[in-house]
TrEMBL record:
GO MF annotations, alphabetized: ATP binding; cysteine-tRNA ligase activity; zinc ion binding
Protein name: Cysteine--tRNA ligase
Species assigned in the record: Siminovitchia acidinfaciens
EC number: 6.1.1.16
'HIGH' region (motif): residue ranges: 31-41
GO CC terms of this entry: cytosol
Protein location: Cytoplasm
Glycosyltransferase listed as a keyword: no
CDD domains listed in its UniProt record: CysRS_core (cd00672)
Cofactor(s) for this UniProt protein: Zn(2+)
Amino acid sequence: MTIKIYNTLTRKKETFVPLEDGKVKMYVCGPTVYNYIHIGNARPAIVFDTVRRYLEYRDYNVHYVSNFTDVDDKIINAAKELQTDALSVANRFVDAFFEDVLALGCKKADDHPRVTENIDVIIEFVEALIEKGYAYESGGDVYYRTRKFDGYGKLSHQSINDLKVGARIQPGELKEDSLDFALWKAAKEGEISWDSPWGKGRPGWHIECSAMAREYLGDTIDIHAGGQDLTFPHHENEIAQSEAMTGKTFARYWMHNGYINIDNEKMSKSLGNFVLVNDIIKQVDPQVLRFFMLSVHYRNPINYSEHLVSDAGAGLERLKTSYQNLKHRLETSADLADDGKEWTDKINELHQEFLDKMDDDFNTADGISVLFELARQANYYLMEKNTSVAVIQAFMKEFEELFPVLGLALEAEELLDDEIEQLIEQRNQARRDRNFQLADEIRDKLKDMNIILEDTAQGTRWKRG
């Protein structure tokens, strides 16, 4: 088994060799929780969940960590707009994040550290950087001395002298150098803050991931991942902080997914094409959205449009239909003496081809192409007059084994009675609150799951359709 990963640090594919045999330490930058996640946030969630699933499928024990930035200027501003406090905003959208990504088939991380729960760890990290001469206090802020770190720019492949040209010192900043960046920010009046050796304040953005990755995974990790937009300055600054602190390599493999465009235009609020996942999955099956995301190699840009998502839905349905046809034929197939070795050999060849594609930098696009060939061969086999139980079971086993690797389900999961009752109670509460839009959404959700509701004077009754 040889898995190759394109390493942003070296700009080439490298054979993956973990620090510890059979174990993978993986850190993925999570969202700043001030709003529902947008389609751009969904891509790394889906992509790196799939990377994790494949590594686990290949018998690696993966320790997967993904953080929440739960204190930030955006969160503070959202709290002001909503007339509440920053932690309430963060808590609300942490819950919303889980609701959205779990619907997309992503598993929860082994650890989801939050900045506000790791303030002491972050302060200790900053103190160590000051002691080593890599950071300094100035007016209650603490800054990192960027030029002191010899390797600065190695991830984004930029010269520090080129960076100097565009660097500026903002009003109120007391930096030694315009390239220096904040590790700790002095509190402004009315802002959420914590006590520190430099006065009340809160962490800068970049320091949180360095501190929490070290706290949960150790000085050196195997894979650090995130969106392409994080390469610079966020991940570049993480390397500078972490390697100055420990004197060791921070992450051995850096993975970054490509950008998302909306109808061939860059997604932005100003263009009015800012698409929230919470809105999309009310109209589109979340599994279809996941399948669409995986239909393009993770490093390539992807163009989101209703037409392309609809095409992805049709493709996913073809695969599922092929599986259902096999399942139905199994009931009438004979246990033939001829075990169909020619067909099982073909299935085994396709299985190995899927592994080869995924081993080559997690190429889900080509992996999905293999699934379509599997479906084509299965459909061709079902046209034969006599079909064998053994061959049909071999086809079905392949679907059942490879779909979960991509985080996809062959059949809709059946709701348990308790889950149905819980949704009905949520709908009843929404109606009591006169939130009829939410009540209708819950009813429609249950309807899509083949649950029929009947509102009576004695309460809401339900049955499976």
